[in-house]
Structure formats: C-alpha cells, structure tokens
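Researcher: Go.
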Amino acid sequence: MLVIHVDMDAFYASVEVRDNPELKGKPLIIGALPTERGVVATCSYEARKYGVHSAMNIKEAYRLCPHGIYMHGNFERYRAVSAELHKIWNDYASASEYVALDEAYLDVTETAGTVERAREFAQEIKRRVLEEQKLTCSVGLAYSKTAAKTASEEKKPNGYFEILTPDEFTNLLSERDVRALYTVGAKTAERLNQLGIFNVKDIKGKSEDVIRILGKQGRLIVELASGIDDRKVIPYRPEDAKSISRELTFQEDVSDYEFLKHALLLLAISVERRARRVGLRGKGVVLKLTYANMKSITRSKIVLEAVHSITIYREAVKLLSQVQHEPVRLVGVGIYNLTDGEYEQLVLEGFELEQSQSPEEELERELQRLQTVYNLDFAGHLDQIYCGETLYKTIEYMRKKRH
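Model: Structure:
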C-alpha cells in the first residue's frame, strides 16, 4: 500500500495570514481572547516558539506570549478553504480519508502504481496547494497510515519525508518516547511508564505486559512498535457520523435556566442546519452541560424523528428540566442515531403544538419571542446561525442583555 498523509501547516493561522499579510511573522493565536474563557485552537509557528500550542488554556497562552495577536477563528472561511484543498487532494487518490479540515490520508496505491510516481504526486500536491491556495503543507509518503502521518510530521513545516518499509519506521522511532506512536496519549504513556516502558524500543521486550494491561489498544501498540499497520484508508461519508452537535462555553457561569432555554433554541437551529446540509436526520436528542465546578453531564432521549430545529429544541428543554439546576459553564445540544434520507415534516408523540401550527410556524413564534426579549433581528440572518462565530456572539450578547 502507498499512502500519502497531507497536513496543512498551522492551518487556521496560515489562512488568516494569507488573507491579511500584516499578520505575517507575528505570533498569532486563534481561539479565545485573553479576557475570555477558552483554549487555543491553533497558533502560528512564531507563537509556538514561546511554548504556545493547541488546546492550551488561553490564560496560560497569554502568560507565555502576552504580546501575541489573539483572535477568534473564522471557521466558515476555514471550511471553504478546506473544501478547495480536498478538490486538489482527491485528484491523486482512489480513496481520501479526511481527519480534520486540514489533514487527510490519501490512498495512492492504484493511482500512482509506483513509489516514484507517488513521490511525484506528493510534490504536485505541495506545489498546487501553494499555487492555488497560497498555503503550505507537510506531506509524508509511506507504506501505511501510521507511517505516513509520522513522515508528514518529520519535517514540519512545509516539509516532505518518506518511510517506505516497516524497518525504516522502527529504526526512526526506536529511541523516541512512546508518545511518538499513534494512540499513545499522556494517560497511556503514564501506564506504559509504570511498566518500565519509556521508548518505543522498550515495547518489544514487554509486549505481553502491554497487551495484558491495555487489552485491544495494547495489541495495536505492540503491532505499531514493530511497524505493523494494516488499516485501510476509509473515505469519509457524512452518513458515517455518529452524531451532530454544537456546544459553547459561556464567558461567565449561567444560573438563569430560562436563558439556557433560549440558548438551546439557537443551538438547535445550528444542529438542524448542519444536519440538513449533509442530508442527515437523527432519532435521538442529547443535552450536555458542564457545571461551574467542571462536572459534566449528558442526558439523552430516543425520539421518533429529530428533524426540525423546534423538535430538537423542545426535547432538549425537557432534558434540561430533569437536571440539577446549578451554575452552568458550558451547554450543548445534539442529535444521534443518524440516518440519511429526505426530510419529512413530522410531529413527535407528546410534542405539544397547536393544531393550526406547523413546526416552521412554531419556530417563528419562538424566534419572535427572542427578538422581543433581546432586541434582536433575525430577518435574513437565520441561516448564519449555524456559523460558530455568529452563534457565539449572538448568545453572548443575549447573556449580557439578560443581566
């Protein structure tokens, strides 16, 4: 098998720099602002020199890099750029597996046929991404998915590397920390360390212990340490998703559960819009809350059809009424048990609507109520609610207005 792994370099930050050259060469941090709750989504390489990295608490990032430029991400723009990148990558692969907006595995076994041609593909991808999108990417060519990802990380940013045999893979990683292996995170590494395993080469001598302690994951780790990875490149299909959800973190804890219901309405609209775009509908609704003490809970309910946003909203409100009312830091709503097919206008059992009202009319009534309470104007802007930044700003405005 011949696999190319493409990984865009600091994707969100690079798109911002491309579209605003004044940001070039500056430590740019995408995510929350220093005055807000939240984390770093990504950052430029200039910011990484100060120790800033993805998923870092934004307060810690600001401590490390107080002179950095902080901004919210424009995820609709990033998705649009990602779609154009996918068009480029798909020209070379018989199967493309998208891991995120900025990363993909490409099976070029049949389309390239030889290692030499696969190398040409890799260089063509780098060239076209630069010429057509004015962005750089790091590319790895290898005999397996794990090796390809390892290769793409080897010469970042804007690099190319190849690992063509299991021996090349094991020789490269032998002396490295166990976290260099796919699936080995901080907690797994800690358990391996307790077995006296610190480097990848240590796994071979204690393979039975690894499998005994970690089970199925342990067996995979043992195989990967020997360069064995037979996983196929699996094309992404929207219908394969297990759920679709939206959540947000409030900048201040919320004790007003009437306001939470209002937030759930806009979250439900966002979820429904995302599901509709990929032709999916759910047969279950889930509510997620993180309280001020960081305790998280989820509540879910199987329903006949979670199709319309008003349906999702009403079921989420029912779930909210059943939880303990304490200050809330984060709220989220989603649908699961997804199926594809045409949307139908259905009314759930126990879903109380006036006979003369359709779901669309009920949604309009609820939105009018929000417009009155918060002095909002949704006219012509409702389709933008599924955009993360618009949703976040709208609900934060509502929270402040509520006080």
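Model: Confidence is low (pLDDT under 50) at residues 343-356.
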